[in-house]
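Appendix C. Worked example: Cys-tRNA(Pro)/Cys-tRNA(Cys) deacylase
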Amino acid sequence: MDMHTALQSSIDKVGALSAFDDKEMTWNMKDKNKNAKTEEKTNVMRILDSKKIKYNHYCYVETGETNGEKVAAILGQDPAYVYKTLVTVAKSGANYVFVIPVKEELDLKKAAKAVGEKSIDMLKAKELLPLTGYIHGGCSPIGMKKFFRTTIDASAEDLDKMYVSAGKVGYQIEIAPADLEKVIRLEYVDVTV
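Step 2, the predicted output written as structure tokens:
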């Protein structure tokens, strides 16, 4: 199966993307999709709309996938632009958010140093929903129940776009890092292994 056939098959299976430009091998999200599920707005999208911030949204609900690298492949995105949102807890009890590329791992020592803590650990999955309002696989840096200090890996600082969760499993947004800064306070620091 050639790449075009494989990607077109993903489009048909997901039912979320509106057009595929065969010549440039890129996704075109400008056309409206008639599939009602792709038109569903998440709270993240509503926040961005209310602030008149430009973004594109993607839906892959039908796949049930939560692994960032696999989602990037399904949607035909370069994994270097796809980021995951991780929530941590410090020894002090404070919580911190880190947004890193899906192919990378959070360096807990670098992360602790970046936020001025002695040590931090990943938040347990069962604690994520009550704390942030999000579940594993659908956690976004935008629209958490309360604001937590947010650090984005330095690799995003010079990007023209990045992809993050839209706050619900199966939904993703594409946004410029400069526009993300208009919605949440953040800092760029090298925090990956």
